[in-house]
Amino acid sequence: MSGRRVHLFGPSGAGTTTLGRALAQTLAIPHFDTDDFYWAPTPEPFCVKRPVEERLRLMQEMFLPRADWVLSGALESWGGPIVPRFTLAVRLTLDPAAREARLRAREERRGPLTEAKRGFLSWARGYEAGIRPGRSLSRHLAFAETLACPVLVLDGGRPVDDLTAEILGAL
Predict the structure, then answer these.
(1) Are strands 31-33 and 151-155 parallel, antiparallel or unpaired?
(2) What per-residue confidence (pLDDT) applies to 101?
(3) SS3 at position 86
(4) Cα–Cα distances in angstroms (integers) from residue 60 to residues 51, 55, 81, 87, 93, in the given order
(5) Residue 131 above 80 pLDDT?
(6) In terms of DSSP bridges, do strands 151-155 and 88-93 run parallel, antiparallel, or are they unpaired?
(7) Average pLDDT value over all residues in the chain
(8) pLDDT band at 1 (very low <50, low <70, confident <90, very high)
(9) Which of 153, 157, 134, 122 is nearest to 166 (CA)?
(10) Long-range pairs for 73-76: beta carbons < 8 A, 24 or more residues apart
């Protein structure tokens, strides 16, 4: 199973991290998430961005030299040096209402809905319209067009086992 470097991306709440973990476990290879590189560790998470150079350096140290890995999350605006290493990309989709319900439940599990969490939920609602900075459907579609590797488009509302099996078939 050498040379499998899978990138999963899509809107917040579509299930890229959950699917990434499941796929990595099935393949017995490491899983990484871009949030772990993008955000600096702070008492309240997801508030301080790391500089791009630091993100890329950490990725180089942590996993890029490996033959096999799964990477979930968004990096289309800053991960250029990593993109040529992908052997397969998977763009997850999910109905906006289902995404919002997942995100709200996740944020509530993490504690009270703070102003920062409410801001995140508002930001995430703008994915399809592409009217705010960061991830958007139009950016992801354009990113997918630039990839030299095969790109699967899967519905993140399907069972994780089914999605994992479909990705294994593509590998």
Answers:
(1) unpaired
(2) 93
(3) coil
(4) 14, 9, 10, 17, 28
(5) no
(6) parallel
(7) 92
(8) very low
(9) 153
(10) 73/8, 73/9, 73/16, 73/17, 73/33, 73/34, 73/35, 73/38, 74/9, 74/34, 74/134, 74/135, 74/140, 75/7, 75/9, 75/34, 75/38, 76/9, 76/135, 76/139, 76/140, 76/142, 76/143
Element housing 49 (H / E): none
Residue 165 confidence (pLDDT) above 80: yes
CA 33 – CA 37 distance, rounded (Å): 7
**Helix pair 96-109, 115-125: axis angle to 10 deg:** 160
Classify burial at 140, counting beta carbons within 10 Å of its beta carbon; exposed 0-12, middle 13-18, buried 19 or more.
buried
- pTM as predicted: 0.91
Largest CA distance in the chain: 45
Using CA of residue 89, residue 65, residue 26, residue 4, what is the dihedral sign?
positive
**pLDDT above 90 (res 116):** no
Helix (H) or strand (E) run with residue 61 in it = helix 52-62
Strand partners, 72: 8, 33
What's 73's DSSP letter? Answer: S
The tokens of 117 are what? 């969490």
CA–CA separation, 104 vs 99, rounded Å? 9
Is residue 22 helix, strand or coil?
Answer: helix
